[in-house]
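seq/struct pair 1
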Amino acid sequence: MQTKYLLSENQIPTHWYNVIPDLPGPMSPVLHPGTRKPVTPADLLPLFPMGLIEQEMSPERWVKIPDEVREIYRIWRPSPLFRAHRLEKALGTPARIYYKYEGVSPAGSHKPNTAVPQAYYNKIGGTKRIASETGAGQWGSSIALACKMFGLECTVYMVKVSFEQKPYRKSMMQLWGAEVIASPSPRTNAGRGILARDPESQGSLGIAISEAVEDAATRDDTRYALGSVLNHVCMHQTVIGLEAKEQMKLAGDVPDVVIGCHGGGSNFAGIAFPFVADKATGSKVRLVAAEPSSCPTLTKGVYAFDYGDTAQMAPISHMYTLGHDFMPPGIHAGGLRYHGASPLVSQLVNAGVIEARAVGQLAVFEAAVTFARTEAIIPAPESSHAIRVAIDEALQAKEEGKEKVILFNLSGHGHVDMAAYDAYFSGKLEDFEYPAEKVKESLAHLPQVDFAK
């Protein structure tokens, strides 16, 4: 009874998969926040090196992974695929459950899959310093690690609620040489503006993005790095799904449903996008994005043009959004507290290629505990949203008496998120269903644009 399915280092993917050629219809343009006209490569140069701008706009289905990036990937890639035999037994389900485990990376999450190539392209483009943001700290620790590997300075604006809840994520970033600043901060105009209106602000990913973008745009030696949402970020993460497809062949199974948690979209895209290509050729595989009911971007948001950040400095994208000034509650899955979503994920959800499901915080932690007590791995709160949906799918198979093959992405471990588990066991966690009227209030401030898809 095999548990692990492993690939050798020479089976690390040589190319990333770009989903754009397999989209149902053309993409909407990304708009400049000032002119509200489609952005050009020149518009993006203050933020990104040309190598990443070219990838962001690439129409090619396959993009070569540089040898320097693959060499660093060898530290933890290929990551293992596990068959969850013990979880299956505990649930009494006829379903076969597999999970791709990204917690084996040095930073303990899937985020280095894109942090490393972003640092590489910045290094060869002449960048000296990276400014970025982080929600739960997974991205921040990953970009700190990647910058250290390529000799770049790194400043990370960390959402204040996570800065306080997850001090060891901050320690990881500092260990790899990064400067870590609680956001909103008095260091930028964006941060000072937020603090003037709400001195006790817990922050949000949208605010932290504003601060990092402002930092990068006002220094010639600095570029900005984003850990999710953008096309090139989603593409870098497809090493997850590409490896998983080969490992599923070793297992002799084909997934009926593929699940990933969803915040901005990078983790979900990583596991699911390579299966979009299969759907484009007739596969019936279901792709399910699991998000928190307290930040229900895909399930309660609208598909519209909106700013990527709170201060309206980032480009305007066509995406599912709760409104750029949406202020999420301080849930422990800090990496999923974003008002918007990847335009690629959004287009696929809008076209019905991808399903979205919102789950409550208590049910998520219940699933995390069940998983840890059967499979032994302590999952990150973000990843546990995928576990919750995977368990629900397995229980549905049990109720229907049908076999089902389930694959989900366990995108990180919870070793530095133990305060969240402490809060759960002490009864301090509560479910929060974001009020529809609050969503409506935030959506009233969407930018007005002339472009109609």
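seq/struct pair 2
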Amino acid sequence: MAKRDYYDVLSVTKNASKEDIKKSYRRLAMKFHPDRNKNDAGAEKKFKEAKEAYETLNDSSKRETYDRFGHDGLNRNSGPSGAEGFGDIFGDVFGDIFGGGRAGGGRSQVFRGADLGYELKLNLEEAISGDSITIDIPTQISCDSCSGSGARKGSQPSKCSTCDGVGQVRMQQGFFSIQQTCPKCQGNGTVITDPCSVCYGKGRKAKTKTLSVKVPPGVDTGDRIRLSGEGEAGKNGGPAGDLYVEIKVNPHKIFERDGPNIACEVPISILTASLGGEVTLPTLNGSVSLKVPTGTQSGKVFRLRGKGVSTAREKRVGDLYATISLETPVNLTKKQEKLLKELYLSIGEGGDKHSPRAGGWLTSVKNFFDRIAS
């Protein structure tokens, strides 16, 4: 049976880059490799076919020959190898997944330090205006005494005898070979025989760092600020992690925020609502005067354009939404109660003229019960 075109096998075009070829092969190898498809001869065949195609197209010389002469142009002796050579090709393609490159490099693995998180609580005014906030972060830093090696000053870590200093060991299962982190040295390539008395061989020690965080104006709950390199120290000379400062804005006594807009409740007296007037309204940039029209009802919302805030992502200033709330008088004297009753008796004589909402509501209730009764 004629062999399939190698480009078709890997589902790539003839001008595909090496990276595209590698990505396609990785996908097919993970899908069809024998450990995932036990007792499936068809999957094993596709696995070997993909491996053969990759070995040819990944080699510039072989690829050029194949492009010119096809399968017949490839020298069988220098053609794709059998299962014996799979370990090398697997390490090349899957090294970033299973812990690093091919054996024989003789280098210890380096590890990037862990990222850290910190919740920074701000009041609304701080979040809107922005500020520089000092925070204390418990973290792990490189040990000064041993310069991060973990070995006592004047001594050196010893090469791991299990992996011969590589940091990885190779496991062979039939023709399928993978590399994994050395269980003895945990990928370091070295072991500590004379540990540092300060960090006890860890190469890092605990410390609380004091940092100044510049908070941009307009931040809101859920926003994050990244401080590069302020996380935990790496191992074996690896880079430090990052610190992510997550913003949480505390509830405000007056305002509620929704992005660039803010809202508040404005209590007014029945007299002001009935006859109209002006009330002083607070904003985050000082107070303003709000004109209340005659006959204003509770729940009425007034929109004050440009009296909101800006955000960290958008400099446009939002609006302020003021909701009217009628305040019922309390702790009345006998005289005040008498006057209030006289007032409401007088208002009641006008019927719906003075209370249109109440009159309409009562009519709706009556019609509702009439429909039920009928």
